[in-house]
Amino acid sequence: REIANAFLITDDDIIITDPESEYAPLVNALHGQVVKISVNSDQYINPLDLNLDYSDEEDPIALKMDFVFSFCELAANRKSGLKPEEKSVLDRGVQIIYRPYMENPVPENLPILEDLYNVLLEMEEPDARYLATVLEIYVTGSYKVFNHRTNVNLKNRLICFDIRELGKQLKKLGMLVI
């Protein structure tokens, strides 16, 4: 009821993360978009997408860095967070992978996880190698669902991200990415 009410009486954008696949009928009835994210889906969201207009006050890459730290903490199953050395190599790697996009901000210049993985592999620090190994399953392994460019239209004001089929291992990462 809350979703329908907000849709009918406001102009607000409505974004739903649907871990149980229960909102699709309502979203379809309101001509919204349902995006199914799973290891078998052909619909993708690039976790490294960057909106240059997101904040007037903060550097968009610095904001994305926060996300990358959280992504790697979850991927490494680190409740205590990343070590300072790991944050430093990630920071360096993220600066490198976004350079082409900042010079020419077109969608095809946005990095994907594989770009970060490759940069980490090129670094000599053991922490960089460790983080590359953590990311490997999400880049070349069984969980590479987040290693693609976004290929869905996100312009609809009502979007439902159905993540039911992500499974237990990927659900937290899926919620973070969305």
Binned, the helix content reads 40-55%
The major pleated sheet works out as: 3 strands, parallel
Distance between the termini: 23 Å
**Class based on secondary structure composition and strand pairing:** mainly alpha
Number of helical elements: 7
Mean pLDDT: 93
| Stretches with pLDDT under 50, minimum 5 residues | none
Principal-axes geometry comes out as globular
Widest sheet: strand order?
Answer: 1-3-2
Strand content range: 5-15%
Describe the protein in words.
The protein has helices at 2-9, 24-29, 60-75, 84-103, 113-122, 126-139, 167-177; strands at residues 14-18, 33-36, 158-162. The chain has 178 residues and is mainly alpha-helical. The protein has a three-stranded parallel sheet with strand order 1-3-2. Helix 3 crosses helix 4 (84-103) and helix 5 (113-122) runs antiparallel to helix 6. The protein starts with a helix and ends with a helix.
Task: Considering the chains and any ligands shown, give keywords for the structure.
single chain, 178 residues, mainly alpha, three-stranded parallel β-sheet, 3 strands, 8% strand, globular
What's the SSE blueprint?
Layout: H1 2-9, E1 14-18, H2 24-29, E2 33-36, H3 60-75, H4 84-103, H5 113-122, H6 126-139, E3 158-162, H7 167-177
Parallel strand pairs: 1-3, 2-3
Helix pairs in contact: 3-4, 3-7, 4-5, 5-6
Write a concise synopsis of the structure shown:
By secondary structure, the protein is mainly α. It has helices at residues 2-9, 24-29, 60-75, 84-103, 113-122, 126-139, 167-177, and strands spanning 14-18, 33-36, 158-162. It has a 3-stranded parallel beta sheet with strand order 1-3-2.
